[in-house]
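Annual report, structural modelling task.

Input specification for the uridine-diphosphate-N-acetylglucosamine complex:
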Amino acid sequence: MRGDVNIKTIVIEGGKTLSGTINISGAKNSAVALIPAAILSDEEVIIDNLPNISDTKNLVEILNILNCDSKIENSSIKINTKNIKNVLIPEILSKKLRASYYFMGALLSKFNYVEMYFPGGCNIGSRPIDLHLKGFMKMGAKITIKKDKYTLQAKNLKGANIYLDIPSVGATINLMLAATKANGITIIENAAKEPEIVNVASLLNNMGAKIHGAGTATIKIEGVSKLSKARVEVIPDRIEAGTYAIIGALCGKNLKISNIICEHIEPLLSKLTEAGAEIKYDENSIIINKKTNYKAVNIKTLVYPGFPTDLGQPFTVFLTQCKGISHFEETLYENRMGHVSYLNKMGSLIKSHAQCLEIKGPTSLNGQIVTATDLRAGAAMVVAALLAKGKSIILDAEHVLRGYENITEKLSNVGAKIEIREIE
Ligand code: UD1
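The model returned the following structure:
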């Protein structure tokens, strides 16, 4: 045990061929925004297709602290805010995940007052929240910051024209939440366009909000005073789907990835195709096979609909199998290369210069003891370990479990030898 936390490892015997079907769960990055969004309603909200991952469990703990009733049955959560109390969320919980910051927008919108700690999340860069705060201030909030504690209050939140310097997912959603009950019209320009934002706007509109343009660079929100009961389904997780598609391209034999929205993972699928992958598309699924003659490709991470930063690390593993030199550039975060030294330990030939990688392939990978330095670096380790010869042990596997529902069951069902072990 480390404090009160179990130390989990993922143990993988690599080199197996994977066949069968992997069903994709609800999107982590939608679910973690939909739960805070639900507290804006004065009645019951149901969220279907909720992924069973530690990030959603931590948000349910925050709901308990706020005295909101919630009940999870199958993969649906019912949330009722009848008895909600606007209390401070403990620092330890805020720091367990990035998305705790959505309670800032939601509580500010509902009570015109919120006290919150700086959020946690993967250590992949400085990850400031200045754009969120500037937006709240434009809407009339006064902000006091003491160390990591933020107090935001407004007499009345009012609609505002907000231009985001960077199309930030977090800022777009947080400001949308705050604007939903503000007086007047808010326009968010240079908004992020990720599908998860559209999912959150759908729930809010189902509750009675008036949001137009989610999914485009300009979102218009006309504030309303009351929000009522609603139901929404979490969209399929495009990052989970993409991770399994990469695994399919490396280890699959007719590996089917189902319950996906193909359009959401097109930036990845088109790169895999450019490298030589053959992907069969169906309406809500793809079938992918391992090939041996992939060619090097270049890629840069971008905001949606560009190549997602969250797939950059797993995709690096694919690039180790491509013939020639591939160039990879991470453009969103300044510290998203934690996987590289471990991949090189397994046998890859990757040179890194700041956030740029030069990957020489193909190289065969061997099982090793490695560490999941963050969620998607952990996903990259899983991909590499499935491909590698021999046994790998991935330390700090809690990171992976934050974002991948039932990862061991899903992979075992298609033929992988994978298990989670707890170190006492
Ligand atoms: C979300 C996702 C994360 C994904 C990222 C980019 C969630 C819970 N997380 O993170 O998985 O990797 O989008 O697709 O949905 N920035 C600022 N100031 C701000 C806000 C952001 O400078 O106030 C910068 C960040 O440092 C980063 C970039 O903008 O360089 C993108 O950040 P953002 O889109 O906000 O990412 P997150 O919402 O944290």
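The pocket of uridine-diphosphate-N-acetylglucosamine is lined by residues 29, 32, 98-99, 125, 127-132, 166, 168-171, 192, 308-310, 332-333 (CB under 6 Å).
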